[in-house]
Input
Amino acid sequence: MTRVRSQAERLLIEATSLLEAAGVESARHDAESLLSHITGVPRLSLVTMAKPDGIQRDAFLKLIEQRASRIPLQHLTGSAAFRYVDLEVGPGVFVPRPETELLAGWAVDHAKTLPEPVVVELCAGSGAISLSLVHEVPRASVHAVELDEPAYEWAQRNLAGTGVDLRLGDMADAFGDLDGTVDIVVANPPYIPLDAWESVAPEVRDHDPSLALWSGDDGLDAMRVLEQTAWRLLKPGGVVGAEHADAQGESAPAVFAERWTQVRDNPDLAGRPRFVTAAKPRR
Ligand SMILES: C[S@@+](CC[C@H](N)C(=O)[O-])C[C@H]1O[C@@H](n2cnc3c(N)ncnc32)[C@H](O)[C@@H]1O
Output
């Protein structure tokens, strides 16, 4: 028996093949997300529930065209989901990634063990990690710094009314007033080696801000600055966690080898090396 396809299903099939032809990896998922964005019908109910009218159909196909030109999905919907929160994102700010949810989870778990946790996020971007921290550990005092003005403005929007102490500045000399008082430093710094340009997807290369991506010949320039700042900010026994590229599973922990204890690398859900954690010795 031939199944009659709903109009939404036919639209999704057409859009998916357009996206696949443009090299978009998650073509069906992205088509569904955009149709859901346009119609307001949840992704999983689209095929049965969505009845897009002519205006919605045209708007959807326009978004598909934009996605096919490799504009990031989240720039088209204007938001990115991260753990239990949604962030406003768009041109000028790094789109938060699912793999960073694990680093944020590490900071949340550690903060939950402390009665009055003081947390600093370096390289805040949209504010995803800081927003998760105040959302999941409301008693935490969270401070965040971002160097790039457009990204800082997105973070301001996302963190408005949350109590996060957000500052515009360079992590190298940020939070002098907090030296030696912090429990947790967390950061997803830029970490792509300058010569890796070819291997980076167009969505990233052409739409994430360059300050969010590149970090010197070995991709670890920012990690070395972060190590210095974390050392200055943390109290004895305080901990640092920082994301890195999957090729940096040994070189990133090596940045912490000289003066930190409990230096270890942590895998992401795909088992790839993803973030380094370390503790400042107690004496
Ligand atoms: C990879 S993005 C991460 C953003 C966000 N934390 C996240 O996980 O989605 C790195 C961010 O660090 C910022 N950044 C780069 N160098 C910095 C510095 N020296 N001080 C503060 N922020 C910096 C960039 O502008 C960018 O927003």
In short: The chain has eleven helices and nine strands. Strands lie at 79-82, 85-88, 118-122, 141-146, 165-168, 182-187, 234-243, 261-267, 273-279. The chain has a mean pLDDT of 95. Residues 94, 96, 100, 122-126, 128-129, 145-148, 151, 170-172, 188-190, 209, 211-212, 222 surround S-adenosylmethionine (CB under 6 Å).
